[in-house]
Amino acid sequence: MYQIIKQILKTGIKTETPPGPDETMRVEAQRLQAEILKVFGHAVVIRHVDAGSCNGCELEINALNNPYYNLEGLGIKFSASPRHADLLLVTGPVSRHMEIALKRTWDATPDPKLVVAVGDCGRDGGIFGVSYASCGGIGRVIPVDVAVPGCPPSPLAIMQGILTAVAAGTEKGTGPEVS
Amino acid sequence: MKLDNFSTEFHPVPGAATAWRADVDAAELPQLCAQVRDSGGRLVALWGSDEGDAGYAVHVALGGHDGLLCLCAALDGKDPSYPDVSAVFPAADRMQRAAYDLLGIRATGAEDTRKWLRHGAWPDTQFPLRKEFDANAVYPTEDDAYPFVRVEGEGAHEIPVGPVHAGTIEPGHFRFSVVGERILRLGERLGYKHKGIEKRFEALGLEQGARLAARVSGDSTVAYGWAWAMAVEGVAGCTPPPRALWLRALLLERERVMNHLGDLGALGNDAGLAFGLAQFMRLKEDMLRINQSLFGHRYLMDAIIPGGVARDIDYGAVTQLHEQARTLEQEIAPLKAIYDEHAGVQDRFLSAGRVTPELAAQLGLTGFAGRASGQAWDLRAQFPSTPYDQLEVRMATHRNGDVAARATVRFEEIGESLRLMREILVKLPEGDIRTDLPPVAHAGFGIGLVEGWRGDVLVALHTASDGSVHRVHPHDPSWQNWPLLEHAVIGNIVPDFPLINKSFNLSYSGQDL
Q: Which long-range contacts does B96-99 make (Cβ < 8 Å, 24+ apart)?
C-alpha cells in the first residue's frame, strides 16, 4: 500500500492544468471540459458501439479516460448498456454484419438521444468504402448528429465532437462536421 | 531446399522474409503438414485464390525451422476441394471454413463445416473472392442462424454476450455454457466486423494498398505496414535503404511497448486495481504524444511506406527518444514491483486462464501468448531480417501459461524492446530513408512476415501478369489464438473472463477481415 501511495504522490495530478501561453493543446482541453460541464451538469452517459472499425478509434476512445484527458473525472461516463445512455459514440464503417446490432442498440437508447460518428470510416466508410460487406458511414444506418473526421481522431477531437453534439441540441440528421 | 520424403523442390521467395515456396499436389497436403508438425513446425496461415481458367488454388503457409514454407496446390475449377488439414493442425479449422465462405473451396473430410465469416450479408451460393463476384453487390440480409454447440444437463444454462459488449471493445459474440459461475464451455462467433478487406485490396491496387494494410488491425498498424511493404518490395525486387529498415524496427518496438503498456494497465483494472490503469495509460499517452510530434501520427499509421519510411528523425529527436526510453525503464520498474507484490492482483492473475504448453503446441498458440505457454517462436530471434540480425533479440518465454505468465512476458518484452530502441538509436545508419519502387509488371508472389506485438503478422501478395493486385491475404495471429481462448476459460468463473480475454487481447478486425 505504501508503494502505491508513494507512486500516486510522485506522479501527481496529470489532468491537463491551466495552460501556459504556447500550450495550445492544453488550452483546448481545459476549455472543452468546462463547456461539457456547463451543458451537461455532471451527467453525460455514453454508450460506445464499434460497428466495424479497424480498432484504431477504440484506442483513442479508451485514451479519453487516461489521466491526461480524464473524461470520467468530469462525470462523463461510459455505460455498459444503451438503455442508460444519452449519447451513442459509434465507430465504423458499419459492416453489413453489424447493421442489425447497431440499429437495435439505437432502438434501445431512450429519447432524446444523440449520435456521434467517430472517424473517417464512421463518417463515410473511409478506406473500406461501401461494398458487399460494408454499409459505409454510420449515417447510412442510423441518424447522426455529429461526425468527427480523423484516422483516428485525437481524443481532443472526439471530446469536441461530443460537445458539439450536446450543444447543438437534438436536431437530427444534419451531421455538422468538427475538425 | 527439399523436405524429406517429398520430391518437391522449394524455391526461395524473393524479399526480406525467410520464406520458401513450392507447387504441390493437393492430395499431398496432409502428409506435408504432418511432416512439418512432427518436426516441431506450426501452421501460420491458410488462404485460397481464384485462378480464372486454371480453377482455384489453396495456399498453406507453415512455420518450420528453415523459415516459412508456402505450399500452393492447384484446385479443379468445377469442384474445388482439397483434403482437410485441420486434423493435423487444428488451427486450420476456421481458416478452411473462411476460405469456403469467401471462395467456395472446400476442405473434404473436415469435421466442422459450419460457416465462419459469412453471417447474413450474402447467400451461401455466392463467394465474394471469386473474380466474377461484384464487390458492390448488395444482397438482402439473411438470418445468421449459427448452430452453437449446446451443453445440456442439470443446472447447465447459457449466457449469450455480444456482439455489442459492455466495454469499449470490438464486437463479437460469446456463448457461455455455465453451471453456477463456472464456465463449462465457451463458443465464439466472430465475423461481425467482416468488411470485405481482401476484396478491397484487389480494387485499390499496389499504390493504395499500403493505407488499407495499415488499417487491417489498428493496434498493429506498424506490423501490417511493414509486412505489406516487405511483400511489395519482394515482388518489385527492391531493398529499402538501411536507415529505413532500422527506423521501421524502432517503430515496431514502440508499437509493441505501447500495446503492452495499455494492456498491463487494463489487466490491473480488470483485477480491481484502477491505479494500474491510470499509471500505465499515462505512460502510453506519453509515447503517443512523442509519436505525434516526431512521426506525425499517434499510432504511427502510414509511417512505413513501400520502399522505406515516410519521415526521418533528426539528432534532437534521437535524443528525445533515448530520453523517453530511459524514463520508461525507470517508471515501469516500481509499477512492476507493485503488481508483483499486490496480493489482490496476484490472486486474480495466478492460475487464471491457463493454457498448458502441451495444449498450446497442439493448437498452435502463437505470439507473446504462445511464449507465455512455452512456445519459443519469435521471428526477431529466429529469422531476423535487417536490423534484427544485428541486435540479438532475447526472446521472453514462460511455461505457466496463465494470466500471470502473459503479464510477465509482456513486462519482459517491454524491457527488451526498450533496450532494442536504445541500441537502434545508437547504431542508426546514416543515409536515405526511402528508395523509389520499380514498377511491377509481372505475375509475382511476395511474403511479408513481421513479429508484431501480438504475434507474427503475415501479408501474402499475389500479382497478376500485368502487375495488378491479384490476391492479398493479410493474416493476423488472432486467427490462431482465438480458439485457445475457448480452452483457456474452461473451469474458470464468468467474472474472470474479461481478465483472461484482456490478457490475450486478440484482434477482431484482423480476424474478421
A: B96/B46, B98/B513, B99/B46, B99/B47, B99/B48, B99/B58
